[in-house]
């Protein structure tokens, strides 16, 4: 079987992205940002988390280019960085929703 040859740094970056999204709190924060740009306070209230905890996770997610920030007046609104993030998550949710056969091919 011929496997694709990806550069090690790309593999490392992808592993870091999955590591960040592997935390349920961070994943919920990203999901909260998918529909429309959302303020930290709104994310915190929706997820019953402190604003400081949400801000901490958003800093990590921004550094990994998973979310982007846009300042509007005194508030900062967060959204998915691009369509790749929402597509990736939608595809993964489709994957876990598939029935399992219990037998590996």
Summary?
The protein has helices spanning 8-21, 24-32, 40-47, 51-63, 83-97; strands spanning 38-39, 67-72, 75-80. Helix 2 crosses helix 4 and helix 3 packs across helix 4 (51-63).
List keywords for this structure.
105 residues, alpha+beta, Arc Repressor Mutant, subunit A, 3 strands
Q: Strand share of the residues?
A: 5-15%
Name of the top-level CATH class: Mainly Alpha
> What class would the helix/strand composition place it in?
alpha+beta
The biggest sheet amounts to: 3 strands, antiparallel
Characterize the structure shown.
This protein is α+β, with helices and mostly antiparallel strands. The protein has a single domain (17-94), classed as Arc Repressor Mutant, subunit A, CATH 1.10.10. The protein is built from 5 helices and 3 strands; from the N terminus they run ααβααββα. The protein has helices at 8-21, 24-32, 40-47, 51-63, 83-97; strands at residues 38-39, 67-72, 75-80. A 3-stranded antiparallel beta sheet has the order 1-3-2. It is globular, with a radius of gyration of 16 Å.
């Amino acid at each position: 079987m011929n496997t694709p040859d990806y550069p090690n740094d790309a593999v490392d970056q992808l592993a870091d992205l999955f590591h960040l999204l592997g935390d349920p709190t961070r994943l919920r924060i990203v999901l909260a940002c998918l529909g429309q740009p959302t303020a930290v306070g709104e994310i915190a209230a929706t997820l019953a988390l402190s604003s400081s905890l949400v801000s901490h996770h958003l800093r990590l997610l921004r550094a990994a280019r998973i979310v982007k920030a846009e300042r509007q007046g005194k508030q900062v609104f967060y959204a998915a960085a691009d369509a790749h993030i929402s597509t990736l998550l939608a595809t993964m949710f489709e994957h876990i929703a598939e029935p399992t056969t219990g037998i590996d091919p």
